[in-house]
């Protein structure tokens, strides 16, 4: 019987362990935390965004960090395959905006417990609160040394995640293990990360969320990236789903050095003429009020002074004294509210890590190392990263599934 050692009990590690066990291997799963799947608890704002219902080709499109490497893994284990398993195990799911799939209960805890019970049911030997210190080879065997002892296996799968959210256990251990065995680690950078901004007014809007806005990023008059969706003002800058996806897009544009300009179209569904007509109607409705009060039906109250300031309009002016030029300036500002991006938050705060173990050194059909026989990798520790929306978890599940079958001896890569 093959003995598979799995280092890291996140989404990828759990699928490796379950799949290897299902394919007849004895499996030991090592996790430094006291629970399995800890990082899954922060996906989808704590509701666990399991996957997406889009086609697998769209998964690759939504994976700017070497999505094509995942072609074989996605062919072998699709979103439908994942959901079929979860439903068979008793988890009810639901589909939401953008094709995102969540547990019906909105509970990441339910998902973690389900995986834990499945691991136990399949006879996986779970080592919680046991940090792995090294991974090495010895006489064609894999040796994992932990804080409590050494373990020998016919294969080892490293699924330790990236460097983001270290409180969940993702502290870069897998990169150290891989490097010690001769692997190349590509530059580690934050992906899906909030931006920091220069303007003080951004901080004053902290907590304000905007929906259905169009956000673009510019460098020296050239539009570099654009996204539609939801954003959030924070005490340090801007965040939210659309902003996070922009951060991943900008990460791959070498000429996009900071500072950058962000423009927010607050009313992207309206042409300038239609928006101007809307403003005129509101001004007629509030003809006796100051202009900052005459726009309360158009924008969140806290945002109005910012728009008027950028438009060069005194918010205390009576509505009936606003000129056509001033009104046009308001229209232009509402469709291109500007702020200066100074950088991103630290890597530890990123949702995922861009960079990692070079894909050139991993067989995409089996996830086995091309350098070290019987060594496999799965999940975020590999140099792959995707947008928000369930794409990163599916990548972890799919690579974990393939690595699990291969490590159990179900497939040979050599």
Q: What report would you give on this structure?
A:
The protein has 414 residues and is of the alpha+beta class. The chain folds into two domains: 3-190 and 347-407, FAD/NAD(P)-binding domain (3-Layer(bba) Sandwich); 194-344, no CATH class. Helix content is 29%, strand content 25%. The protein is built from twelve helices and 19 strands. It has helices spanning 11-22, 56-61, 71-76, 79-88, 108-121, 173-180, 200-204, 241-251, 272-285, 304-311, 324-334, 391-407, and strands spanning 3-7, 26-30, 51-52, 93-95, 100-103, 125-127, 132-138, 141-146, 150-153, 155-158, 185-191, 195-197, 209-219, 222-233, 237-239, 260-265, 337-344, 352-357, 375-377. The strands form five sheets. Strands 12-15-14-13-16-17 form a six-stranded antiparallel beta barrel. Strand 14 (222-233) and strand 15 form a beta hairpin. The longest helix is centred in the C-terminal third of the chain and has 17 residues, at 391-407. It starts with a strand and ends in a 7-residue tail after the last helix. The model has no long low-confidence stretch (mean pLDDT 95).
């Amino acid at each position: 019987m093959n003995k598979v050692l799995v280092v890291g009990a996140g989404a990828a590690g759990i699928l490796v362990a379950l799949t290897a066990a299902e394919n007849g291997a004895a499996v030991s799963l090592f996790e430094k935390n006291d629970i399995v799947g800890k990082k899954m608890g922060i996906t989808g704002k704590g509701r666990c965004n399991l996957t997406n219902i889009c086609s697998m080709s769209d998964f690759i499109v939504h994976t700017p960090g070497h999505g094509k490497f995942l072609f074989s893994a996605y062919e072998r284990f699709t979103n439908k395959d994942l959901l079929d398993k979860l439903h068979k195990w008793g988890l009810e799911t639901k589909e939401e905006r953008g094709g995102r799939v969540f547990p019906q209960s909105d509970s990441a805890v339910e998902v973690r417990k389900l995986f834990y019970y499945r691991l136990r049911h399949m006879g996986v030997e779970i080592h919680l609160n046991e940090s792995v210190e090294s991974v090495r080879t010895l006489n064609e065997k894999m040796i994992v040394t932990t804080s409590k002892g050494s373990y020998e296996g016919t294969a080892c799968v490293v699924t330790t995640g990236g460097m983001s959210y270290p409180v969940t256990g993702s502290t870069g251990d897998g990169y150290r293990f891989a490097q010690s065995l001769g692997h190349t680690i590509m530059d580690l950078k934050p992906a899906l990360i909030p931006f920091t901004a220069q303007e003080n007014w951004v901080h004053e809007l902290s907590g304000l969320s905007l929906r259905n806005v169009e956000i673009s990023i510019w460098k020296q008059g050239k539009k570099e990236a654009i996204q539609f969706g939801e954003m959030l003002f924070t005490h340090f800058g801007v965040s939210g789903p659309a902003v996070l996806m922009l951060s991943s897009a900008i990460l791959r544009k070498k000429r996009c050095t900071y500072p950058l300009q962000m423009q927010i179209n607050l009313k992207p569904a309206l042409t300038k003429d239609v928006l101007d007509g809307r403003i005129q109607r509101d001004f007629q409705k509030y003809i006796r009020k100051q202009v900052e009060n005459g726009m309360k039906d158009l924008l969140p109250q806290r945002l109005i002074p910012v728009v008027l300031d950028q438009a060069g309009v005194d918010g205390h002016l009576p509505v009936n004294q606003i000129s056509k030029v001033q009104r046009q300036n308001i229209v232009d500002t509402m469709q291109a509210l500007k702020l200066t991006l100074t950088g991103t938050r630290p890597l530890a705060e990123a949702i995922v890590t861009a960079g990692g173990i070079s894909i050139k050194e991993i067989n995409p059909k089996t996830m086995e190392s091309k350098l070290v026989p019987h060594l496999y990798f799965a999940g975020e520790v590999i140099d792959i990263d995707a947008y928000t929306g369930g794409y990163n978890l599916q990548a972890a599940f799919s690579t974990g599934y393939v690595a699990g079958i291969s490590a159990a001896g179900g497939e040979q890569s050599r």
